[in-house]
C-alpha cells in the first residue's frame, strides 16, 4: 500500500518522496486515514515503528483544509513527557510542514529554560508540542489559550499517565473544548492508558501493531553475570573488545550515570550523560553529539531516553536493570528498530538475577547468559 492511497495532499506526498519514504509502516497505513476522517485513535505500536509520522502527516493535511488563525489560540496540542521528545516531535512537524503551500507554525515548549522567549514565540502558532508543567505556566500567563484546540495528541501516553503528571493532565483537560479529536499513542497498553481511553476517546479506532514480545525478535539479547565491583570494567571491556562506535547505556539514577561517564572518559572512551539533573543545553548537546557520532557512548536514565530516536542504533547496554519488564522492552527497543538488527546487553549481578528471571518470563523470551568471572579485564 503506497502513501498515495492514504488521502494525503500532493505536497505531503512529495515531501515523503524527497525524504525517501517509500512505503508506510503498518501503524501509518491504519492511523493516517482514520485521523484524516477526524476519528479518535488509540495507537499501540513499538518504539521506532513510525508513530510520530502517523499523526503528524494527517494533522498537517487536515490543518491545510481548516484552521483557526486567531493569535495565541492554537489548533493542535501535542502533550509529551520530556523536553527531548518535544523537540523530536516538533522537528517532524517542521520537516513536513515546510513544504506546504500555506505556512503552519509549530513550537515546542518545556521547562528548564527561560519562559519569556517561549511566550514571545507563541504568536501565530498552529501546532504546540508541550510538556504539561510548562504548558500550564504559559496558560496562567495568558501567553496561550486552549479553547480552540481541534486535535489533542498524547504521545507516549503510557508515560504521560504514570509519572506524576495526573494532576497537571486533569487541569489541562479541563481547559480544552469538549468537542475535539483525541489521539493517543503508546508503545505499550497498560491500565493507565486503558483508563484514560475510557474517559477521553469517543468510539475510537483502536490500532495495535505487533503484540508485546514479538517486537524484539530483531534484537540479539545477551546477559553477563558479573559482580558489582566488576561492572565498570566489564562495560569498558565490552565497548572496546566489540569495537562499539555508538552505544546507549542505561543507568537507574543520574548519580550512577555521571559515575559511569566519568570512568569511561578516564579510560579514553568519549561519553556523555543525559538525565533530569543536566541543564537543557547540556542535554541537547550530548544528544546531538551522540546522534552525529561525535560521542561514542551516551548514558541515560529511563525517562530521558524517550527522546532518543536513532534509526540504526547498533547497541544498547543495561548497566543496571529497570524496575519493570515493560521498561526493559522499551530500553532494548531503542535498537532493532524499523527492521534493522541490533544487540542488547544486560550486566546482571547476583542480586539482580531473580529480577532478571522475572523480566525474561514476562517478556516470553529467555536470554543467553555468559559468566564473565574468567574474563581478563586487567587494564579496563
Provide the descriptors you would attach to this structure in a database record.
380 residues; alpha/beta; 38% helix
CA radius of gyration: 21 Å
Report the major sheet.
7 strands, parallel
Assign the structural class, choosing from mainly alpha, mainly beta, alpha/beta, alpha+beta, or little secondary structure. alpha/beta
Give me the count of strands.
Answer: 14
> CATH architecture of the largest domain, please?
3-Layer(aba) Sandwich
Question: Could you give a quick summary of the protein structure above?
Answer:
With 380 residues, the chain is of the alpha/beta class. It has 2 domains: 3-208, P-loop containing nucleotide triphosphate hydrolases (Rossmann fold); 214-371, Rossmann fold (3-Layer(aba) Sandwich), CATH 3.40.50.
Question: Would you kindly provide a written description of the structure presented here, covering whatever features stand out?
Answer:
The structure is a single chain. The protein has 380 residues and is of the alpha/beta class. The chain is 38% helix and 17% strand. It folds into 2 domains: 3-208, Rossmann fold; 214-371, P-loop containing nucleotide triphosphate hydrolases (Rossmann fold). The chain has helices at 10-18, 26-36, 51-65, 83-97, 115-121, 132-140, 157-160, 166-175, 191-200, 231-241, 254-266, 280-292, 325-332, 353-363; strands at 41-44, 76-79, 106-109, 127-130, 151-155, 181-186, 205-208, 219-225, 247-250, 271-274, 297-300, 315-318, 342-348, 368-371. Helix 5 (115-121) links the parallel strand 3 (106-109) and strand 4. Helix 2 (26-36) runs parallel beside helix 3, helix 6 (132-140) packs across helix 8 and helix 13 crosses helix 14 (353-363). The longest helix has 15 residues, at 51-65. The protein is globular and about 65 Å long.
Amino acid at each position: 500500500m503506497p502513501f498515495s492511497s492514504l488521502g494525503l495532499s500532493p505536497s505531503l506526498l512529495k515531501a515523503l518522496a524527497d525524504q525517501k519514504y517509500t512505503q508506510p509502516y503498518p501503524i501509518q497505513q491504519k492511523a493516517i486515514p482514520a485521523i484524516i476522517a477526524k476519528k479518535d485513535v488509540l495507537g499501540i505500536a513499538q518504539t521506532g515503528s513510525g508513530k510520530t509520522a502517523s499523526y503528524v502527516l494527517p494533522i498537517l493535511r487536515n490543518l491545510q483544509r481548516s484552521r483557526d488563525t486567531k493569535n495565541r489560540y492554537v489548533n493542535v496540542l501535542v502533550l509529551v513527557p520530556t523536553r527531548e521528545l518535544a523537540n523530536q516531535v516538533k522537528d517532524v512537524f517542521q520537516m513536513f510542514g515546510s513544504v506546504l503551500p500555506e505556512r503552519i507554525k509549530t513550537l515546542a515548549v518545556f521547562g528548564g529554560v527561560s519562559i519569556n522567549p517561549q511566550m514571545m514565540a507563541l504568536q501565530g502558532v498552529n501546532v504546540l508540542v508541550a510538556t504539561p508543567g510548562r504548558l500550564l505556566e504559559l496558560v496562567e500567563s495568558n501567553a496561550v489559550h486552549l479553547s480552540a484546540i481541534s486535535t489533542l495528541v498524547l504521545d507516549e501516553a503510557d508515560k504521560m499517565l504514570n509519572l506524576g503528571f495526573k494532576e497537571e493532565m486533569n487541569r489541562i483537560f479541563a481547559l480544552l473544548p469538549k468537542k475535539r479529536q483525541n489521539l493517543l499513542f503508546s508503545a505499550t497498553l497498560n491500565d493507565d492508558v486503558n483508563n484514560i481511553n475510557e474517559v477521553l476517546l469517543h468510539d475510537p479506532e483502536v490500532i495495535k501493531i505487533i503484540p508485546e514480545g514479538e517486537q524484539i525478535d530483531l534484537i540479539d539479547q545477551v546477559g553477563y553475570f558479573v559482580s558489582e565491583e566488576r561492572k565498570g570494567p566489564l562495560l569498558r571491556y565490552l565497548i572496546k573488545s566489540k569495537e562499539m562506535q555508538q552505544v546507549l547505556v542505561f543507568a537507574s539514577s543520574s548519580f550512577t550515570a555521571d559515575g559511569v561517564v566519568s570512568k569511561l572518559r578516564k579510560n579514553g572512551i568519549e561519553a556523555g550523560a543525559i538525565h533530569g539533573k543536566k541543564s537543557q543545553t547540556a542535554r541537547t548537546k550530548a544528544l546531538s553529539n551522540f546522534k552525529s557520532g561525535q560521542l561514542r557512548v551516551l548514558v541515560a536514565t529511563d525517562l530521558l531516553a524517550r527522546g532518543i530516536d536513532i534509526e540504526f542504533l547498533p547497541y544498547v547496554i543495561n548497566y543496571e536493570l529497570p524496575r519493570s519488564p515493560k521498561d526493559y522492552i522499551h530500553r532494548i527497543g531503542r535498537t532493532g528498530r524499523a527492521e534493522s538488527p541490533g544487540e542488547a546487553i544486560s550486566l546482571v549481578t547476583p542480586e539482580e538475577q531473580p529480577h532478571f528471571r522475572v523480566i525474561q518470563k514476562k517478556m516470553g523470551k529467555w536470554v543467553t547468559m555468559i559468566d564473565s568471572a574468567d574474563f581478563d579485564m586487567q587494564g579496563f
